[in-house]
Structures are given as structure tokens and as C-alpha cells.
Amino acid sequence: MKKILFLLTMVLSCNAFAQNIKFEGFVKDSLGNGLDMANVMAVNNQTKAMDSYAITNEKGKYFLTLKANTPYTIKASYIGFSSYEKNVTTSSQNMTYDISMSQGVQLKDVEVVYEMPVTISGDTIVYNSDSFTNGTERKLEDVLKKLPGVEVNKDGEIQVEGKTVQKVMVEGKDFFDGDTKIATKNIPADALDKIQVLRNYNEVSNLKGLENNSNENIAINIKLKEGKKNFWFGDISAGIGVGHEEDRYIVNPKLFYYSPKYSINVIGNINNIGELPLTMRDYFKFTGGFKNMMQKGGSAFNVSSNDLGILGLRNDQAANIDTKFGAANFSYNPSKSWTLSGFGIFLGNKTNIVTNSVNDLPEGASTNDKETRNEVSEQQSNLGIFKLSSSYVPSTKVHFDYDVFSKFSNQKEDQQVISSEIGEIYTNKEQKPFSINQNLNYYYTLNDKNVFAFETQHLFQQEDPFYNANLETLPFALSGYDTTQNRDDISQNRFVKTNKLDAKFDYYYMLTPKSNINLTLGNTYSYQNFDSSIFQILDNGNVNNLDDEANTNNVDYSFNDVFLGLHYKFLIGEFTFNPGVSLHHYNTKDSQLGTDHTTNFNRILPDVFAQWQIKKSETLTYNFSLTNNFTDIVKLSEGYVFSNYNSLFSGNRYLENSLSQVHSLRYFKYNMFNFENIFAALNYTKQVDAVKNKALLTSINQVSTAVNMNSNFADETFTAAGNYGRSFKKYYKASAGLSLNWSKFNNIRVFPTEEVVQTTESFTQNYNVSFSTNYKKLPNLSLKYGFTINDNSSDVFYTDNPSVELEYYFLDAFSFVSEYSYYHNRNKGKTIDSEYDFLSASVMYQKKNSKWEWKLSGTNLLETKGLNSNSFNQLGGTSSFSSYVVQPRYIILSLKYNL
After folding, report:
1. Each residue of 805-841: pLDDT tens digit?
2. Which residues contact 143 (CB under 8 A, 6 or more apart)?
3. Distance from C-alpha of 491 to C-alpha of 308, rounded to nearest angstrom
4. How far apart are CA 197 and CA 447, in angstroms?
5. Judging by beta carbons within 10 Å of its beta carbon (0-12, 13-18, 19+), is residue 448 exposed, middle or buried?
6. Which terminus of the chain is more exposed, N or C, with fewer CB under 10 A?
7. Does 133 have pLDDT greater than 80?
8. Rg of the Cα atoms in the chain
9. Ramachandran quadrant class, 470 (left: phi over 0; alpha: psi -120 to 50; beta: rest)
10. 654 vs 697, more confident
11. How far apart are CA 588 and CA 656, in angstroms?
């Protein structure tokens, strides 16, 4: 297999490089000055195809790879200059050819981007979609993966210059704001005309240049082909299983409409073949575009999720998955200054999960070294997301926004566990969390020197997790518990309600064109209620309420932070500095067990931002912040809470805040001359007085409580990441990257005679390389290799992950796409050595200009039974190795109709 891939790559490479010459020179103005980021391309006069293109560097230099002894038309364009066009015939030797351009009428955008694969206008990079496609592409992500400097990961996230794209728009209108996966997985590739990457993106023009984070923001705007505007477009597909004992099916309609005044997008998907338009993991990280408005305040009070930790899928796979998905998005402009938009998403899943694991046991916790565990779970979940937004911008001086974002879910899980330590356990989990988040922002520019901003955000969140466990023997001693039953059947009801209001007023005063002062007055107020109760079902069906104080919670908790901040931003040459400081007054109060406990204190928190703009597309950025971290109500509640059948937790009302310092250094460079992009980042965090667990571990069971760790035992993390990417010779794209993560955590282990501070360290290393081709008429390969080392306190794990993708468009009607991935997991102790692989392939048939497409696809063609993984538990300092059952081979025959 390796030899075949090597020979195929060499053949394709030799074909591309045969009889090519280097054609280079400088693009200059009438005074002989080099023009940075001018567009140059060569059109083959014989084939009428564009053979090569380039963008000049800061000195005006360009470089083309052309065929020898061939007539070409050399074209060049630059905003503000008349276009250049000359006929040139190449020789058999490398050639030098300078281009002189004369200043003329400002070119329109359509003239600048015409036929050029890539152009740059200010902070916007424009890709011509057709220049990078070969006919096998079906979705937006298929095109994005081929663009220089753009990556799409397995979660559907788009990254440009090492930064994650935060917003996708189509014709300037938001497309499901707050998530890019729905766009990458659903927007049809044949509708794309131009893909605009908007660097230094800021939705509020009033604050452009005033905030530090504007240079980190990246958005993508899709320009549609003319035939897709003012008409419904999209596709409707349906498929059935071939040769399966059980019925397998998929129905997937996608409809889109765009006009200058409004847009509508409707997406649906019903299937039982494991295709997931949106996972539960995607649901919980879906932000709706809401940002952390108090980020520069210096305090961190995050309302944690008090769910039951219902298992998510690994690699979007399980033993069986039945999915129902529906989503609709709209945008409407009642006037030029007013935009209404919103979306609704529904996701319903029925999932079967089967996992077998081998877990190390903490030293001294059991007579055995390891526990084997078999888990079978049946899950049902119905998830919903809704958002409505209004944006009113009557002039460049005024900007008014209002957003309301709601999430709800209904989740159930029934699980059977067979443990070698505590026998057979049955558990049931149910939860119906609901949240609604409202955001109101007003920005006003009085004049060139004075800008005002008012932002407020309100969160209402309600959670009601229910947990039940039926097991042979409850491993904990609870007050009032009846231990005479044949089996122990115990349940807990919980209810958590949160109201949180953030409000912030900013005033910016421009001292000079290159400096400003920012005054901030802010307030965070949160009020929470937490109730919980434990009860036992006896053998005769009666209920035994464990209403002792140790087993119940009835807690109210309020948190208030009022702060005043001052920041001074100034530019000196290529450097930008923005040091600041915030003065906080904190007040907290919890009421439980018939008493109140309050705290009041003040704190000064500094922060620093510094940036060196080395070149137009090369920066080095440093950030420092000192942050007060506060916990929410559950860790303060002193009654017992079930985390699981083998885990019991009690809070501590006397917890204090922890203090963390964060240093980050970031470098990036993007060179359009040779399509080179370099990204590197270093982050160091040190947290003192951290809220940690003090735990008694017995076998696989633990009873823990929350404490503040002594400052002498600070938690530390250090992360480093880097990536080098390059597109070259028009046909190739390559990258190499790494990520390193070192952490040191401290916890308190309780033994019969003493308490011991247990320090655990882990060091994870990820290395990856990739190479891909992008020919128009030849088969294309994408080769990737990833290597992971996970070194923790108990063992060292290694994972190899090579993969290859093949795609080929042939006979003007057929498309073939295939992907193969191989995994090899092993450990240093040589007790684990497992291998598994996955192969998928599809053949599509669609005649040119036909609206119908036939597709035959297969997943898990090698009938792999499961995938393996390892994890590390910092509290116990132990490792776990698990095997996760996945879906069998599915062969699907489908038919698609393109509107």
C-alpha cells in the first residue's frame, strides 16, 4: 500500500513539473517602485486556461511556473492602476520579465478579481472558487480545504492564519450565527462564486481600532454565482441501504434563497446511518454569536453546567445512531439601516453506546490493580436552539443591537454497567435544562475624539437533573439509609436556577490619532438557587426520604462585582501598547443550613496588551492578565450531591476565590507571494488558591469535597502550538504542525491516618504533517500523518494516525471519493497494543448540466468493530483504556435533485 501511494504521488508530481520554466520579475509603478500585493497571471493562448498566478511581495516581486515554448497572455492588476496585458512566448530557459503599470482610474472590484484565483484588497482576501475546484466538491468545506492558508478540522471549524473563523455570512447575511459547522457541511459547492476572508473583522464600526481583539477576529463571506441570486437553489437527496437486513435510509433536503432584501435557508436531515449534521457536543458549544463582554474586566464568574454528564459520541460514531435534524435561518432588511435575522435548530437523536474499558486503580484503594468495566447505554435527546436579532445602524455614529438566544433540551439515558469491582449497576439519568440569553448593545460616536459604548447581557438558566442508580451494594454510608435491602435503589433530584446580569459602560477618548484612553464602569450580578434531595426505593416499593441535612441542599447564593477600569492604548511606530488596570469591589452571600455567610473585599487587577506589527501580514502579540476566579453555587452547597453511582460530592461554603496569572505570546505570518503561513503560540497559566477536590478513594469509589489548595501548591499549565503551511506550484498544499501541553495539578488524597497532597503531571505531544494535490484533470491525493504521545503519572501512551484521501473526477460525469484512516495505540508498559482502521468510499454520477445525481456510498467498509482511546484522571493519578463499539458497514444508494 505504501509503495503504491509513493509511486502514484511521484507520477502525478512528474506530470506537473514536466518541461516547466521559472517566469519571474517585478511589478512596478511609473517611478520604479515595487507594488505590494499586485495580481499577476498567465493565460495559455493555446488552451485558453490560466496556467499560473501570483501575488507580489512587499518589493513587487512575482513568480510563475509556466510551460516552455508556449504563447501566453500576461495580465496584471492593482487597485488604482490601469490593467496590464501583454503577449509573451516562453523559451526553454527560465525568464525574467518586469511589468510597469501606470496609475489610472480606480478599478471596480469585479475587474480586480476577474479570473484571478486570489486577490487582496486591504484586510480582505478574495478566493475565486472555480479556480480551486475539480468537480468532486459537494459542500463548502470541500472547497475551503483547497484554499491556500485555509484549514477545516474534523469538527467543521474553519481556521485561517491559525485563527478560528467566528462567523460565516452569505451575501453579507449571517448564516446560523455562532457556529461554522452548519455552513461548511451544507452550503453547496456549486453555488459558490467568491469566498471572502475578512481579517480584522469588527461588527461594530464605532469600535474599530479601539479594541485589542479586533485583529484576532476573522469572518468569511460567501458571494454566490449570479444564477443563484433571487432564485431558490439547493438540493433534495434521499437514499436507502443496499444489502442490509435492517432498513437503512437518509433524507436530506437543503433549500436556500437570497435577494438584496431578505434570505431564507432551510436544512433537514433524517437518517439512521450515523450521519450527524450537529452533535450534542456542537449543541453545547453553540454560542449564538454571544461574546464574553466582561473579558477585560479581570473577573471570571462562569455559571457552570450542572448536567449529569450524559456521554457524548466519540468521533461522531456509536453502535447505532438514529437522527432527526431541522434548521431554518432568515435575514430581512425592512430598511437600509435595519436588519432582522434569526434561526431555529432542532436535533433529535436515539443512540446506543457500548464501551469496554480497563481502568487503573489508585494505589492503596483496592486489593486489585485494575478494574474492567462493560457499559451499555441507550440515549434519547431532543435539543433546540433559537435566536432572534435586530441591528439598527442609521448612520456611522449610531449602532444599536438586540439579541435573544434560547436553548432547551430533553435528555434521557439508561445505562447498564458491569464492573469487576462492584458488580452490576443500572442507572437512569434525565434532565430538561433551559436557558435564555439576552443581549442589548448601544454604541455612539459623538465626534472624532469621543466614543461611547453600553453593553448589557442577561442570562436566565434552569436545570433539573434527576439521577437513579440500582446496584448490589451502595458504597457510601448515608444518614437514614436502609442497608437491609436485597439491592440498593437510590435517587437524587436536583434543581438549579440562575439569574445573571452583566452591564458595562465604556468611554473612549482619542488623545491623538495614535492614542486613546478607555474608562470602563462595569457590574456583574448573579443570584442562584440550588435544591437537592436524596431518596431510597425499598424492596416493597415504599420511599425512604433521606432528609438529613447532610443529604439535602436548600441554598441561595448571590455574587456581585462592581469595577472601574482604565486602559491607555498608544502606537509607537510598528508597536501597539495597551496597559490597563481595574479596581474591583466584591460581595458574596450564601444562605444555607439556617445561617448566612458573607464576604466583602477589594482587589486591583492589572492587564497588558502589546503587539509588534512586523509587516502588513506579520505580527507578534503578547497578553498578560491577572484574574480573580469564582465558583458558582454547587461547590458551595454542603449537602451531598451524586456525581455518579460511585462518586459522592459535598461543597464548602467557606471557599475563597482563586487568583490566576496568564501569559500568552502569539506570532503569525502570512505571505501571499508564496502562500506561506506560519503560526506559533505559547501560553502559561499559574493558579494559586485554586478550588480543588479533597477525596477519599476506595476501589473505584470516591467521596470528595471542595477546598482551596494551599498557595504553595499552585496549579500550572504550559501550552505551545505551531504550524507551517505552504501552497506552491499551483497544484500542491503542505503543512506541518505540533501542539504541546504540560500541566501540573494538585489534589488532596484522604487516607485512614493522614491527608496527602497528591501532585500529578501530564505532558501531551501532538505532531502532524499533511500534503495534498489539486489537479483539474488528474486524481488528487491528500496524505496526513499524526503522532501523539500522552505521558502522565501512570504510563505513556503512543498513537499513530496516518490517513489518505483520494478524489477523482473523470469522463465528465463520474466522481470518486475515498478516505482511509489507520490508528495504532500502544503504551510504554507494553500491556496495550491495538490497531484499527476505517475506509469509506463513494461513486457519484451526474451528467454535465443535469439536475440529477446518483450516488453509491459505503462507510466502514472494512467492518471495524470499534475504536480505542486512553484517558487520564488527575484526581486519582490513574489511566484508563477503552474500546468503543462503532456502527457496521453501510452501503447506501441515493438520488439527488439539484434545484
Report:
1. 999 999 999 999 999 999 999 988 888 888 999 999 9
2. 129, 132, 133, 137, 189, 192, 195
3. 13
4. 30
5. exposed
6. N
7. yes
8. 30
9. beta
10. 654
11. 10
Contact 73, 43 (CB under 8 A): yes
Please list, in sequence order, all residues whose beta carbon lies within 8 angstroms of the beta carbon of residue 652, skipping any fewer than 6 positions away: 635, 636, 638, 705, 706, 707
- Phi and psi of 130, rounded to 5°? -65, -20
Say if residue 392's pLDDT is above 90. Answer: yes
Model confidence over 403-445: pLDDT tens digits?
999 999 999 999 999 998 888 999 999 999 999 999 999 999 9
3-state helix, strand, coil in the chain (%, to 5): 5, 65, 30
Residue 181, helix vs strand vs coil: helix
How many angstroms separate the CA atoms of 45 and 889, rounded?
Answer: 49
pTM of the full structure: 0.88
Locate cell 432564485: which residue? 231
Q: Give me 520's grid cell.
A: 470602563
DSSP string, 483-541: TTSSSEEEEEEEEEEEEEEEEEEEEEEEEETTEEEEEEEEEEEEEEEEEEEEEEE-TTS
Specify whether the CB–CB gap between 34 and 27 falls below 8 A: yes
Q: What cell numbers appear for 356 in the block?
A: 469496554
Q: Where are the beta strands (DSSP E) in 420-487?
A: 423-431, 434-445, 450-463, 466-471
Q: What does the CA dihedral 62, 68, 69, 73 come to, rounded to 10 degrees? A: -30
**Of the candidates 869, 298, 318, 326, which has an alpha carbon nearest to the alpha carbon of residue 628?**
298
Decide if 130 contacts 190 (C-beta within 8 A). no
Q: Which amino acid makes up residue 653?
A: R
CB 99 within 8 A of CB 114: no
How do 434-445 and 423-431 pair as beta strands? unpaired
Q: Which residue has the higher pLDDT, 49 or 771?
A: 771
Q: Which of 426, 375, 215 is nearest to 885 (CA)?
A: 375
Three-class SS state of 10 = helix
Rounded to 10 degrees, the C-alpha dihedral 166/168/171/176 comes to -110
Burial of 30 (0-12, 13-18, 19+ CB in 10 A): exposed
Contact 214, 208 (CB under 8 A): yes
Instruction: Give the C-alpha separation, 37 to 546, whole Å.
Output: 73
Q: What is the Cα–Cα distance from 326 to 499, expressed in whole angstroms?
A: 30
Q: Is 476 exposed, middle or buried (0-12, 13-18, 19+ CB in 10 A)?
A: middle
- Cβ-contact 411, 429 below 8 angstroms: yes
* Look-up of cell digits 476565590: 657
Angle among Cα 714, 716, 718 to the nearest 5 degrees reads 165
Residue with cell 517566469: 23
Q: Which of 887, 895, 885 is nearest to 246 (CA)?
A: 887
> Which helix or strand (DSSP H or E) is residue 110 part of?
helix 109-113
Cα–Cα dist 448/508, whole Å: 10
* CA distances for 832 relative to 228, 356, 793, 864, 870, angstroms: 54, 14, 17, 18, 10
What integer is the mean pLDDT of 222-229?
Answer: 89
Q: Which residue has the higher pLDDT, 485 or 312?
A: 485
**Secondary element (H or E) of residue 5:** helix 2-17
pLDDT value for 314: 66
Q: Of the candidates 236, 226, 238, 138, which has an alpha carbon nearest to the alpha carbon of residue 190? A: 138
**Section 73-94 average pLDDT:** 89
Distance, in Å, from the CA atom of 661 to the CA atom of 689, rounded to the nearest integer, reads 12
- Pick from 391, 400, 403, 205: nearest CA to 291: 403
Beta-carbon contacts of 830 under 8 Å, excluding residues fewer than 6 positions away, are none
Quote the Cα angle for 363-365-371, to 5°.
Answer: 90
Identity (one letter) of the amino acid at 331? S
Assign 213 to helix, strand or coil.
helix
